[in-house]
């Protein structure tokens, strides 16, 4: 199927490419579902780092990731992604932790700071996936900021795709796919 109906279909298709042995980052760990997908994508020789500001999220993710040892989770904002030297793959699933306090959300400023740093630290041929939702407090402001920032990326350095579920109701997410070009 070429045209997708759900954001995770786009994510899964992207992760189906060869990321074995690579370094990946889940910038918004949540319950750990994307972290688990990244672990499967990088395989036993790769490594995954994860960031979340909620201890509840980190704890839920650790339960889901039981049996894996090639990851490290930080109880920290994704704005501090620059504590990592470099990486090959990053996913952002913006919004709030499902089933928890909807007032604790990702925010425009920290997300933009993280994206700025991620675009500097990502290795050539690296991929950044951003899933942006509307419907929670601050979501429109955050999405507009993400959209504006990503539009400003130099097309000589980055390829960028914005995928929308155009005819769906109830504020479906937008998925941005960013690839850093190989310049050699």
What secondary-structure arrangement, pairings included, does this model have?
Layout: H1 7-15, E1 23-26, H2 33-42, E2 47-52, H3 55-64, E3 71-75, E4 87-93, H4 108-121, E5 122-132, H5 139-151, E6 158-164, E7 174-180
Parallel strand pairs: 1-2, 1-4, 2-3, 4-5
Antiparallel strand pairs: 5-7, 6-7
Summarize the structure.
The protein is an alpha/beta fold. The protein is built from 5 helices and 7 strands.
Write up what this structure looks like:
The chain is α/β, with parallel strands linked by helices and 184 residues long. The chain is 30% helix and 26% strand. The protein is built from five helices and seven strands; from the N terminus they run H-E-H-E-H-E-E-H-E-H-E-E. A seven-stranded mixed beta sheet has the order 3-2-1-4-5-7-6, with helices on both faces. Helix 4 packs parallel to helix 5.
How widely separated are the two ends? 34 Å
- Taken as a percent bin, the fraction of beta residues is 25-35%
Number of helices: 5
Strand arrangement within the widest β-sheet reads: 3-2-1-4-5-7-6
What's the average pLDDT?
92
Q: Considering DSSP H and I runs of 4 or more, what fraction of the residues is helical? A: 25-40%
How many β-strands, per DSSP? 7
**Unreliable segments (pLDDT under 50, ≥5 consecutive)?**
none
Largest sheet: 7 strands, mixed
